[in-house]
Design brief:
The chain is an alpha/beta fold. 26% of the residues lie in helices and 19% in strands.
Length: 296
Amino acid sequence: MRTDDKDFVECKIKGNFRLRDIKSTNPVVVGDIVQIIRNEEGTAFITEINERRNYIIRKASNLSKQSHILAANLDQCMLFITVSHPETTTIFIDRFLASAQAYRIPVILLFNKMDIYDDNELHYVDGLINLYEQIGYTCRKISIRNDIGLDIVRQDLANKVTLLSGHSGVGKSTLINTLLKKDLQKTAEISSSHNKGIHTTTFSEMFPINDDGYVIDTPGIKGFGTFDMGIEEISHYFPEIFKFSAQCKYGNCTHRNEPGCAVIKAVEEHYISESRYTSYLNMLEDMNESKYREAY
């Protein structure tokens, strides 16, 4: 842990310490601001966690009724997206965006590996960027390998605490190594047989950049199971769906098959994209506690 004096101290949680109101697999997370008591051995005990102003949370992959907090007290997130090597689906993107929206955390979408795509893939990237920019999200085209677009990413990171997230193999650790000009994080090639990333980061870690900024590298995640969202809330985290929902005939409309649904009409008239609507319906399925999809 880093102290106010910028010293690093090894810390442990006291045996009787419990985090209130959050059923999480990791009670203390990267980005937490904590109170500590030092001991004679030069280490310290964490005695209290200050109230979090926000966090990114997802359903734990092996315990469906528990959560896993990726990081806390964030200024923004950067979600890495690759349309191949490995593929990032729109359902995965939308689940992450909805979870960030729930805690009012801005997200920048980084479309990485622009140097390796063919014409069809480049056209698909442009379509995705057009979709998400119209909703209001900031998008960047980058190639870390060829140093394309990194200047503006450095500006985006200045003086902020930023969570980097995405599948394994999309470039999170490579970006950190490039920013710090050191091989601090392990990287690996994409599996040629499955076109999927190989896990190299095994736990979340925060790195200082410049004078006042921090980036948080997280392990690559296959799926993003939403946690602690009610059926009536999910549409609030899709800005374009929430906008049209005000025109629905019924105030408790879930936008699935109700008569007079303005959202369904907007999808049919292409004011809301089918991919976003599919992601919304997919998240509604999470309300079935017997179901959890490991990958999307």
